[in-house]
Write a structure and sequence with these properties.
The protein is an alpha+beta fold and 701 residues long. 14% of the residues lie in helices and 33% in strands.
């Protein structure tokens, strides 16, 4: 149900929706208890469902032991026409992951059971479970991923090894130390020397080979990047650091493979140029289909009838948050059309219907991530209404005949479950991984609101508060990272507003200028203005939330954020210094000069600040938190990970030093084994307990 209320004083529009929490019932209390950090860390996690062409479905659920924090994964299966309320739990008699159905309903998967390194296996699924398991690949290298051709006669295997390898892995370890010591030697023209959370290995790349299958993979395989030598394509596919199976797609006839690759050379750290290539398996020839575009081209999606290649493309080189427009490339004529040029949203997935009549894609749209139907003939975009109420965050898994869509949905209320929609609208939930447990605990109420932000633009936000509390609530202001991102209506195992609200706080999040889901101009508006409009929006948004909900106690307020949100904590400390009782700064940028010279993806600061530090020194210094440390007075908890190469942990150490030398109440939490994110279960629990103790210290009455 969607309802709207208004408040003329702040032009506040409110949409109410209820949320709930995960569950471990208290035998001594008839009232549902609030969600805890342990609930968040140990909540079962649904893997992306894998669906066969005729509707069989397989999915994984990973659970975390609440005492040992060890994780284990169960594999669930429903045959074609089977009862989703009673799925089978499959036993593969060993480790198994990364599943894909063959046309006959059997399944391929990865396992390291035989040789201690990951290889491709095959199994038959039936009413008695798993049978006839056999090893399909025995290549020299580790198989990190695979993609089966449409008819099941060929497979692409993915791995990481030398560009000089003419065969998969070629029997050499993935290392390139020059010796005799342990030092790593990097050439100035070699591109990244470290990326995200790992040091690069010179000459080692993500690569993919195509093989025929005759019970086992046969032959030496065809390298998708072509043979080595002068003029060879040297690129990572899947792309680094987060690329996966979406970067590779088989042509409908199985005679060629499309893949997204990022050229690895000296210009890579400052370039967002990703191209889509096509490799002819008969000749081994590699062709760049998007050479004319120096920005990002990604996610190749051939139509099932073999006529078109759909993909996503940005227009502006060097900008990682440019709008992703659906492109349609005619494989016969070579003509390419920008299919969704007139639709001002950025898409992030592509799925064809089996008859090639429609494309279904997802995109951020005002706090939701709904699905859209795109007409490849006209480019007309129609938003699908798949879930009653708010769409929240939808991920399309498969399109089945008869306009049926298998998708996942999560929200601030609960993690992902699998749904089935029949006929483009409405749906029914197929799984109950966490839904019932979350409904059993005390509820958190989520309210959407909007207000007039910087320049009079409409800005959206949300308020999350414990429904069982009747008195005043201290406020926690959430500031998202990116900065081109959103704290939208989606579940997170890290920055989860629900678990914070369950501790007795009202959590307020604002999609300030620069956020995604409101059109590209709104996203672009943060460019060269990091501390300007966003701070104004946060100030106006917090005031609007307080004016629109009298239960919020603005006299007790803390703010917290990570990455750009952490930058904003440092910026607030110097430019809104008297507003908050405390701050939580995670992986935040503290000194823009040192950040520029120590981060790895240089295209990011170059775009957002209009050039390098030496080219735009005045602008970097204008929005540099270190220049305002003499104004700092707010207690701050600083959190950082030693494996963070995006915002190196020394930024956190520097901010902690600034706090210490000014005698400001402060704490420093350092994770030696985490990157820009906190991912390990025990570390996540420690993160939350430390943050909750800090909030309680400064917000308790």
């Amino acid at each position: 149900m969607k309802t709207f209320l208004s408040s003329a004083a702040v032009a506040l529009a409110l949409t109410a929706a209820l949320a709930a929490s995960p569950a471990y019932a208290d035998d001594h209390d008839d009232d549902p208890r609030p969600m805890t950090a342990l609930d968040l860390v140990t909540a079962p996690r649904l893997g992306s469902p894998v669906v066969s062409a005729d509707g069989a479905m397989l999915w994984t659920v990973t659970t975390t032991d609440p005492e040992s924090f060890a994780r284990s994964t169960a594999i669930h299966y429903v045959p074609t026409g089977g009862d989703t309320d009673a799925p089978m739990t499959l036993n593969f008699a060993g480790d198994a992951s990364s599943f894909e159905f063959a046309p006959d309903g059997s399944v391929y998967f990865l396992s390291s059971r035989m040789e201690g390194r990951s290889q491709l296996f095959h199994a038959v699924l039936g009413s008695d479970g798993v049978s006839a398991i056999h090893q399909v690949s025995r290549v020299d290298g580790e198989v990190a991923g695979f993609d089966l051709s449409g008819d099941g006669s060929k497979v692409v295997l993915m791995g990481t090894f030398s560009r000089e390898c003419a065969t998969f892995g070629c029997g050499t370890p993935a290392t390139s130390l020059p010796g005799p010591g342990t030092g790593r030697l990097y050439d100035g023209e070699g591109g990244f020397y470290r990326h995200w959370d790992g040091w690069e290995q010179s000459g080692i790349y993500n690569r993919a080979f195509a093989f025929p299958i005759a019970n086992v993979v046969t032959g030496a395989g065809t390298p998708l990047d072509g043979p080595a030598g002068d003029g060879a394509l040297v690129a990572n596919t899947p792309t680094m650091p987060f690329g996966g199976g979406e970067d590779i797609a088989w042509a409908a006839d199985g005679g060629s493979v499309f893949f997204a690759g990022r050229v690895s050379d000296g210009g890579e750290p400052a370039s967002t140029n990703v191209d889509i290539y096509r490799t002819d398996l008969a000749t081994g020839a590699v062709r760049n289909l998007t050479d004319a575009n120096d920005a990002t081209d990604t996610m190749p999606a051939p139509s099932p009838d073999g006529r078109y290649l759909a993909y996503l493309a940005m227009a502006r080189p060097g900008y990682e948050s440019d709008r992703l427009v659906v492109q349609l490339h005619d494989l016969a004529t070579g003509e390419t059309r920008a299919l969704t040029q007139d639709f001002d949203r950025s898409f992030h997935s592509l799925n064809w219907t089996p008859d090639s009549r429609w494309i279904v894609a997802t995109a951020g749209d005002v706090l939701d991530d709904p699905a859209f139907r795109i007409d490849p003939r006209s480019g007309e975009v129609t938003r699908l209404d798949l879930v009653e109420g708010n769409e929240a965050r939808i991920g399309v898994a498969a399109i089945l005949p008869g306009n049926r869509i298998v998708f996942t949905r999560n929200s601030v209320a609960a993690p992902s479950e699998i749904y089935l929609s029949d006929g483009w609208q409405g749906s029914r939930r197929l799984t109950d991984v966490t839904a019932s447990d979350f409904e059993a605990l005390a509820q958190v109420e989520t309210t959407r609101f909007n207000f007039a932000g910087a320049g009079g633009d409409t800005v959206w936000g949300m308020i999350h508060k414990p429904a069982w509390v009747e008195g005043p609530l201290p406020v926690v202001l959430y500031v998202h990272g990116g900065p081109q991102g959103s704290f939208n209506d989606g579940w997170s195992s890290r920055w989860n507003p629900r678990v914070v609200a369950s501790q007795g706080y009202a959590v307020v999040s604002i999609d300030f200028h620069g956020s995604t889901g409101y059109g590209q101009a709104f996203t672009d508006s943060i460019n060269r203005d990091w501390g300007g409009k966003p701070l104004e929006d946060l100030q106006l948004g917090l005031a609007a939330a307080l004016a629109g909900d009298s239960q919020l106690d603005g006299t007790r307020a803390c703010a917290m954020g990570a990455s750009y949100g952490g930058y904003m904590m440092n910026w607030i400390a110097g430019n809104w210094a008297d507003r908050f009782d405390c701050l939580v700064q995670h992986d935040g940028l503290f000194d823009m000069r040192s950040f520029y010279y120590t981060t790895e993806e240089l295209w990011f600061p170059k775009w957002d600040f209009g050039g390098s530090y030496s080219e735009q020194k005045a602008l970097y210094e204008r929005w540099n938190p270190v220049n305002y440390v003499d104004n700092w007075q707010t207690p701050m908890l600083v959190i950082t990970g030693e494996m963070d190469f995006r915002v190196p942990y020394t930024q956190g150490l520097a901010s902690f030093t600034a706090l210490q030398e000014r005698g400001i109440d402060s704490q420093l939490l350092v994770f030696p084994d985490e990157n820009h994110w906190v991912l390990k279960p025990k570390n996540s629990l420690q993160w939350h307990n430390t943050v909750f103790d800090w909030l309680d210290k400064h917000l308790s009455q």
